[in-house]
Design brief:
single chain; 4 helices; 0% strand
């Protein structure tokens, strides 16, 4: 299954989740997505809530159990 915006996740939430699964810290996610740390934390909270988990490790496990795949980010022109 592919995680898509239609499933209720925003594009940036999917980007944050993709980087989370790759093991990136909030600080690295900020740098890669050019977002403020507070914004990344807000997206992370929304992702955790949507997955019904309380931490990053549980989120990764939930993604795996659900069989969700995260497509690579679209190239920015």
């Amino acid at each position: 299954r592919e995680l898509k915006e239609e499933a209720g996740y925003g594009a940036r939430q999917i980007d944050v989740l993709r980087l989370l699964v790759q093991g990136r810290s909030n600080k690295l996610i900020c740098r890669e997505l050019d977002l403020a740390e507070g914004t990344v934390k807000t997206h992370m909270t929304a992702v955790l809530r949507a997955l019904r988990v309380t931490n990053r490790t549980q989120a990764i496990i939930a993604i795996a159990k659900l069989g969700i795949t995260l497509e690579p980010p679209k190239a920015v022109a």
